[in-house]
Amino acid sequence: MSGHKTRLDRYISQQTTLSKSQVRMLVAQRKIWVDDQIAQSVQQTVDEFCEVRVEGQILAKKTPDYWMLYKPVGVLSATQDAKHPVAVDCLRALSVVQRQDLHLVGRLDLHSSGLLLLTNDGRWSQAMIAPHNKMPKVYQVVVQNPLTEQMVQGFNEGVFLTYEQVTTRPAKLKILAPNLAEVTLWEGRFHQIKRMFKRLGNRVMALHRVQIGPVKLDASLLPGQSRRLTPPEVQALSQVNTATNKENFSD
């Protein structure tokens, strides 16, 4: 995963012909800058997305890349697989090399569809999926049997999952039609929505993710299509407070 940090002297010596001792001397002479700040120590850490200037020359810098994909049913949330088509292969606007540099931010089941995020920025994706980050995710769910107020209450209270021997965090279930629900989760356990409905006596027939945090799946995208996230979308996702909860998440 991208975003690995390394010491400044090691990073520069790997990118140039300078030795670590020469880097140390240039730092002492205030001739090395990191992200428009004079480097203070060879021990400070940088990564591939930092702008490092050595005597005025900018070293190679990778540009962060952020994508949304409308994952179709039957496409695996993975970067490679011998049996199924994988999500990164849907990004046909990118070269094979560029696709290989991306990784998924979370996942969707093989038989689920909808919004999937991809990036080459490991720091960003790690923050997005961190357990303490209660990033809300919204799904449209088709179920086999008619929905009931008891199911709404069950989701709101949390559902006990026997395999983990835990009760899920409270979730929001909104009835849109007799067999169609909108579900908002603040956590992501394995097959969570399917298992919650099963525990409450129903069965999921189709599951489609429409929103992650403040970002909605672009309505102009068809299954298998993708586009880059806009700068405001990236910023909005980055600024979602880790204390986000269902009281301050707007419908």
Automatic annotation (TrEMBL):
This is Pseudouridine synthase. It catalyses: uridine(516) in 16S rRNA = pseudouridine(516) in 16S rRNA. Responsible for synthesis of pseudouridine from uracil-516 in 16S ribosomal RNA. The keyword Iron does not apply. Belongs to the pseudouridine synthase RsuA family. Its EC number is 5.4.99.-. It comes from Thiosulfativibrio zosterae. NCBIfam families: pseudouridine synthase (TIGR00093). GO terms for molecular function: 16S rRNA pseudouridine(516) synthase activity; RNA binding. Transmembrane segments: none annotated. GO terms for biological process: enzyme-directed rRNA pseudouridine synthesis.
